[in-house]
Amino acid sequence: MNTVLQAHGLGKKYGRRWALTDCDLVVPAGHVVGLVGPNGAGKSTLLNLAVGMLTPSAGTVEVLGAPAGAQQAKVGYVAQDTPTYARLSIEDHLRLGRRLNPAWDESLAQQRVQHLKLDPKQRAGKLSGGQRAQLALTLGLAKRPELLVLDEPVAALDPLARREFLQDLMEAVAEQELSVVLSSHLVSDVERACDYVIVLVDSRVQVSGEIDTLLATHYRLTGPRRDPKDLPRDQFVVTASHTDRQSTYLIRTEQPIHDPAWTVTQLTLEDLVLAYMGRDVQPERPVLEVQR
Ligand SMILES: Nc1ncnc2c1ncn2[C@@H]1O[C@H](COP(=O)(O)OP(=O)(O)OP(=O)(O)O)[C@@H](O)[C@H]1O
């Protein structure tokens, strides 16, 4: 299996505080990966480690089969604030891109600028937030990377611009042999653009995997109150809540659920992400497999 990102025991400490802890991940190539989690969860830290902008305090991280940072030409990175040079024009940015990147695709860059109706003479400092994000994406795509890493690329965009941005990204993924890892606060964006998800909370990966597989193996069970130790061994409890007479479990299992006492419902991606993000109960049984 070709992997775009592999982390083993990866951790990062700022001073005495861990921003990322014990991170184990294997992300196969060919996916659009959504990295979700609340503010301060460690998403930017993980992405910065992946692109070699930060060095680990513990563990290792490999990108495209080599230590992070070793393959700069194959990795495109758009940081959280979609950095551009305010005083340089759009065409200056393309010229820089051409000089700095061996696999630069000039026609792709020009086509995108035209399609976005951007004036090549306009300075980046005069672009709107959405236009700047689109320029940064153009630079990232024209680099023709094998992996494109986007840190909250759509945070500053209005809903329509966000939709267009993600649409452009998906088209680029369909046309180029490209893997993408993007962080976002919005599950709806991940649902629209991604086929793989990583949920990061409090500096730890809570769950990761292909979205279809995760949705096919997670269920909500509602029925008469039941102790978690009476659930089958193959059912891993993600969250549990109880009233006097009723229990509701969100579980992960590979096996079909035959127990007629339960009303079984499928989860949406949002249900699943929010369950892992809001998991504050400490179930008495094994909680989950972090990865498949
Ligand atoms: N340069 C830094 N110095 C000290 N602490 C930092 C630094 N950068 C991040 N942190 C801390 O590390 C933790 C993780 O931050 P990080 O920016 O990776 O989270 P995030 O998930 O990207 O958050 P957000 O969604 O708000 O962008 C936070 O507690 C943050 O305060």
TrEMBL record:
Bilayer-crossing regions: none
InterPro entries named in the record: AAA+_ATPase, ABC_transporter-like_ATP-bd, ABC_Transporter_VariousFunc, P-loop_NTPase
Keywords annotated in UniProt: ATP-binding, Nucleotide-binding, Transport
PROSITE patterns listed in its UniProt record: ABC_TRANSPORTER_2
Pfam family membership, one: ABC_tran
Any one GO MF annotation of this record: ATP binding
Domain ABC transporter: from-to ranges: 5-227
PANTHER family named among the record's database cross-references: ABC TRANSPORTER ATP-BINDING PROTEIN ALBC-RELATED
Protein name: ABC-2 type transport system ATP-binding protein
Source organism (scientific name): Kribbella rubisoli
Lineage: Bacteria, Bacillati, Actinomycetota, Actinomycetes, Propionibacteriales
